[in-house]
Write a sequence for this structure.
């Protein structure tokens, strides 16, 4: 499941089979309620569910031209609002879980890092969801630059914290993770944000921690990101 979920980033997951506008047109208009999380694993499961919807909807929007988005705006906007509501509910559930956990002092350092990763994922998914129906670069820049910069800040903080806990005898962070961590959000920042400073910061953080997260390889992602930026600058 983890690898198939991550492969959705690349459009090769079975999640994309039969993907078209009709599947969203016939879905319910309201987002499902998000129950309180009892464990950090509950939060990851809900994150996965939201991420599946994000990948499917985001891929469809990416394939549409501005005219196609305009022609189908009612259906697309309804789905966008549903996903925005899910993300808002997810953030609220995270807040409640963290507040309850801190009150009972039951979050381990590892779980605290997991919370930080989940919040970074929420921030990245939220900004990309908010701009998915916009094709104007200037509009995207005006509403998303600071939010993309915030995602980079969170990724940098997570990367730094992992380096700080590495054993002194082996001052290295983990080199293989099965879950999505910082690579995909940083790559999304570089792909979606056109602010050179923010993109360079994201690339620097991406290169600072050589590792794999399932199908994602940080070094390969950094290479692709550099090539993307170089091609756009020509």
């Amino acid at each position: 499941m983890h690898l198939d979920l991550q492969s959705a980033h690349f459009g090769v997951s079975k999640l994309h089979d039969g993907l078209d506008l009709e599947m969203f047109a016939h879905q319910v208009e309201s987002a499902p309620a998000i129950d309180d999380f009892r464990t950090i694993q509950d939060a990851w499961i809900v994150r996965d569910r939201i991420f599946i919807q994000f990948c499917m909807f985001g891929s469809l929007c990416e394939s549409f031209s501005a005219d196609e988005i305009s022609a189908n705006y009612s259906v697309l906007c309804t789905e966008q609002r549903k996903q925005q509501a899910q993300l808002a509910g997810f953030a609220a559930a995270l807040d409640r879980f963290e507040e309850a956990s801190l009150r009972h002092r039951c979050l381990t350092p590892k779980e605290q890092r997991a919370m930080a990763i989940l919040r970074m994922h929420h921030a990245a998914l939220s900004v990309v969801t908010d701009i998915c129906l916009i094709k104007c670069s200037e509009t995207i820049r005006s509403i998303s630059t600071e939010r993309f910069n915030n995602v980079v800040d969170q990724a940098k903080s997570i990367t730094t914290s992992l380096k700080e806990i590495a054993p002194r005898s082996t001052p290295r962070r983990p080199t293989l993770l099965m879950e999505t961590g910082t690579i995909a959000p940083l790559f999304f920042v570089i792909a979606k944000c056109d602010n050179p400073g923010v993109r360079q910061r994201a690339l620097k953080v991406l290169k600072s921690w050589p590792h794999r997260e399932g199908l994602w390889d940080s070094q390969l992602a950094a290479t692709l990101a550099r090539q993307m930026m170089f091609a756009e600058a020509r």
Remarks:
- DSSP finds ten helices and three strands in the chain.
- The two ends are 39 Å apart (CA to CA).
